[in-house]
Every structure is written in C-alpha cells, then in structure tokens.
Write a structure and sequence with these properties.
mainly alpha, 8 helices, 70% helix, globular
Length: 232
C-alpha cells in the first residue's frame, strides 16, 4: 500500500467515524434536531448593522467581528502566489517551447476600450462593499481580469515589481490599521472610526478602508499569478 492509499484509508475512517458520531448524538437528542440554537447568528442579524455601521451584514461579520480570520485568508492567497512562483521558477530550464499565438485586431482594440471600465468597476465594488453585495476579494478578481485581458491582447503594461510593492504595501497598511484599533480600543482590528449613517458611502468606520486594501492586494496578487503563468 503506497502513501496515497494510506492517507485515503485514514481519511475514510475519520469521515465514517464522524458520521457515526453525529448519528449517535442525533439519536440520543444530544443535538436537538431542528431547534433554533443560532444565538450568534441572531446577534449578527439584529446588532451587526448597529454595531459596525455596515448595511451589508456579511461585510459586518467578515471585517467587523472576524477581521482576524479575513487577514488569515489574505495570507493564504499570498502563500499560494508565492508557492506558484517557486514552482514556475524551478521549471525555467524546461526545453518545452509552446507555439506562439497572436491576438486578433478586435481583441487588441476592445482590450484598450474595456480595460478602464473593468478597473473602474473593480474599484466601485470594493468601495461599496459595506453597503452593497461585493467586497475586497471579488473586486480583486475583477481587477485581475482586466490585466488578464491585457495579457491576452499582448498589450503588456503590467509592471510586476510595482505590483509586488503595491501588494506588500496594502498588506502592511491592513496590519497597521489593525494595530491602530488595538492602540485606540484595546482590540486588534477594532473599529476606531465613526460608523456614520447606515447606508451612506462614508460609513462603517474602518470596514471600507480594509475592503479597499484587500481589493488592491488581491488584485495585485492575482495579477502577479497571471503574469507568471503567461511568462511561462
């Protein structure tokens, strides 16, 4: 039995044991099936908007009550980008030479026209994440899709060194904002700015600031990943 089969067997045993445990707890009413036990969920629904000033309850939870978790998610994406860079750098000596392709005139022309609107839409998403669906991660993906269009049209214009500095700087400012909350309020990433009027653009304290930083950071990281893939 090779190593993969052992891992698969151990995982299967764990999942089966977990399912049996859940069935046992349900059978003996240790977990009241169908009972409303979501105390934390009710608190989010009833008090999140008032506490954070964010009209988007998901945003209030992600960056208001669980901002530290969001910082970890951003770090996961950063580590994924670093890992991809290491893998691609180790394969630069490969003799494989893919066939060259050239974009059409339509693609080149439309890339120049559409790219500014894609960037503008990405900025809109992370600036309005606290009052409408969206946020930093989808905004970063939208920004990266604009650079993907440039790469497909072979327009260039992506400066990887600048993108790395922007990514590092936005992550650093995110941590600084969190430390400012620790300094002013006693808790890391605690909101120390006025929450403003619910539903207005200038509201929710530090949440729109954090979402803007996340959008810029994610866009730079995904753009760097696309750049490396096209380079290879």
């Amino acid at each position: 039995m090779n190593r993969f089969n052992k891992i698969f067997a151990y995982s299967s045993v764990f999942l089966i044991s977990l399912c049996l445990l859940v069935v046992f707890l349900l059978a003996f009413r240790a977990i009241p099936f169908g009972a409303d036990t979501m105390d934390v969920g009710h608190f989010y629904l009833e008090d999140a908007a008032k506490s954070t000033g964010s009209a988007n309850i998901v945003t209030a939870v992600v960056l208001g009550f669980r901002g530290f978790d969001t910082l970890g998610e951003v770090m996961v994406l950063f580590l994924g980008a670093v890992g991809l860079g290491l893998v691609l750098s180790s394969q630069k000596d490969s003799t494989h030479s893919p066939a060259k392709t050239f974009p059409s005139l339509i693609l080149k022309t439309m890339a120049d026209l559409v790219f500014p609107f894609i960037v503008l839409f990405g900025i809109y998403i992370f600036m309005h994440g606290h009052i409408s669906p969206g946020g930093g991660f989808p905004a970063g993906a939208v920004l990266a899709s604009g650079y993907l269009l440039l790469f497909l049209s072979q327009r260039g214009g992506y400066h990887i060194r600048l993108a790395q500095r922007v990514e590092t700087g936005s992550g650093l400012v995110f941590v600084i904002v969190g430390l400012a909350g620790l300094y002013f309020s006693g808790f890391f990433l605690h909101n120390f700015l006025p929450v403003g009027r619910l539903g207005s653009l200038y509201s929710a304290g530090i949440i729109p600031v954090l979402y803007s930083l996340i959008g810029i950071k994610v866009g730079a990281e995904l753009g760097g990943i696309i750049y490396r893939l096209f380079g290879e």
